[in-house]
Amino acid sequence: MPQILSTKEANLFRQVIRDYEEKRYRAGLKAAEQILKRNPKHGDTMSMKALIMNAQGKTEEAFNLAKEALKVDFKSHICWHVYGILYRTNKNFEEAIKAYKFALKLEPESQQIQRDLAILQVQTRDYEGYVQSRFAMLKARPQLRQNWTALAIAHHLEGNLQEAERILTTYEKSVSVAPSKTDFENSEALLYKNSIISEQGETERALEHLEQECKKCLDRLAVMELRARYLAELGRKEEAETAYRALIDRNPDHTDYYKRLVDVLGLTAEDEAAQKAIFDEYSAKYPRSDAARRLPLDFLTAKAYLGLMFNKGVPSTFANLKHLYSDSFKKDTLPSLAEEYLQEAEGSNAEASSDSSKGVGAALFFLAQHYNYHMSRDLTKALEYVEKAIQLDPKSVDFQMTKARIFKHQGDIAKAAEAMDQARLLDTKDRYINTKAAKYQLRNNENEKALNTLGLFTRAETVGGPLADLIDMQAMWFLTEDGEAWQRRGNVALALKRYHTVFNIFDIWQEDQFDFHSFSLRKGQIRAYVDMIRWEDKLREHPFYFRAALDAVKLYLSMYDKPEGVNGANGNNANGEDAAEKKKAAKKAKKEAQKAEKEAAERAAKQNPNKAQKDKEEEVKKKDDDPNGVKLAETKDPLGDAMKFLEPLLQFSPKNIEGQIAGFEVYIRRKKYVLAAKCLKAAQALDENHVKVQELAATMQKTMDGVLESLAPKVQEALKTELA
Questions:
Q1: For the chain, which residues make up each domain, given as ranges?
Q2: C-alpha distances in angstroms, 680 versus 547, 558, 699, 711?
Q3: Predicted model pTM
Q4: How deeply is 106 buried, as exposed, middle or buried, from its count of CB atoms within 10 A (0-12, 13-18, 19+)?
Q5: Per-residue pLDDT tens digits for 169-203
Q6: How many angstroms separate the first and last alpha carbons of the chain?
Q7: Hey, what CATH topology would domain 7-199 get?
Q8: According to the UniProt record, where is the region Disordered (predicted)?
Q9: What is the DSSP-derived secondary structure letter of residue 354?
Q10: What is the pLDDT of residues 461-507, one digit of tens each?
């Protein structure tokens, strides 16, 4: 039988819960100990103590105590709920869901347990279970609109659009008092319902609903854009034209509105005069709009536009026009116009502008970028033009940066890094140029120097220095570049550490959904929430993940192929003298790191003494037990570790040939021949003439000649099917 608490101890137990929720872990632990002194077998208190211990980083002890609590009070919904929370915080979602469901059997009326279960189900994309949980929550509290909306979202995510619409309509009919005009939740719910109708392919009905029900919605821009789109899809061109013209009047720099207006008017590429008339109309109506002047350059010459941009000294002129280089005529015409502008400027005896970034300087800058661009590259000419521009204005950061880029494309990375650092020194308060200088230093394998450069813009009080702050800010470009630099320098441990840090950042993004499953419903931001869910489902398609994952897989492959090389890089094969020196250096580095960490902590405590104690409580949880990646480099199963990166890479980027090649390399070494054959087949479908793909095909054939007969009949059959 569970122990019953006295009134005083029951109040103390409620205090334990409050302390946990407010992260006052020491106070909560002390209160729990007081209860357990008199009631050592009180399961609920034992569970809360376990929860606090888990928050302090004592995971194993917390699980042991939670299990003891269940033995003491097996039928306590609190014990089972806490047990589920422990599994959830340790990312074992399957066991967490089981614990939540058992807790619900014991306490079916608990809204908190039901809510936690629903959140976990949508997090794991168990939409069928999510529908059931949301339906139960709706039955318990049908007066809350967010419960109706949540059930509609559950059906929507499950793919049942008609049921989602029916749920929203049912609630609307049940409301007796009309919502106010400023009701944001109602406005968003109406637009969400409209998007569901549209997704069903019923554009006519979606337009009708938009014009009747959504005309007073607060997001006026969304209503205008949806109406214009629906009218265009329905072929009502005159009304669509009016709608897109209204959108252009609202934002004359939105390029997509112009393109859609041209499409609605049925103008083809040959109708240059008609298209020009539209853009001339809006460039006259909105003189400060760049879009109306730039877009016609897709089919017209750019002389007037270039002259205007050069006179204004707009640095982004080349970036705005380089998309035109797919047309060989325009690619040849643009530099000719820039050179013509220079000749005219030199021929006229007009006084030089006080701002050297305008006029001649802007034209020289454009030509330097033109000849540095990969589609029109002539690095000798690029360097010539940028030197002229620098002579005109030696303190221009843009000119110096372009010079550094030219050196990079010449293959002289050291010179490029030096030039980019000189550009940085021209404006030491600019974070962008600081970042570029650090990036070039990393490309030159100057990891320490790059970190010091970035440290000029990181928080000085951060424990762990600039690196810790960059990790906190999730600077993935730095982590990837730093990892690649360490890999080139032969430091496998630090390279792996950086790649795993990038992997963990994507895990954090995945976990960040937890906060929004409830928040978005509470705030009524439904459309943004659904967009977020769909974005999260494709999260690891991101180029940052692909690059870091591919680097990690290649490194693990090299570790598998040449384990002695890896050991040498980490000093395991060094002679006694070298080993002693490395040990001494490591000890010194450790002392310096501890000293720096202590100083940073003291500075932080001085700035905010009240926060220092709280941070100290959470320090155990945040501590990294392998800051230099030594344990990662000592792996006994590099191919198994590579799979952690490879599986999402193949799942979310199947059209990237580099990923398929990496997949083949891993699977063939793991003797997973069917999976290797699938990767080979996918790579051949993408580019069968790729040199590496042809090498892989030869490797596969050679491997099959040696092992095919020894494989199981089903495997042989599957291989023949894949390789057919």
A1: 7-199, 234-300
A2: 20, 20, 10, 19
A3: 0.86
A4: middle
A5: 999 999 888 889 899 999 999 999 999 999 999 99
A6: 67
A7: 1.25.40
A8: 566-636
A9: S
A10: 778 889 999 999 999 999 999 999 999 999 999 999 999 999 999 99
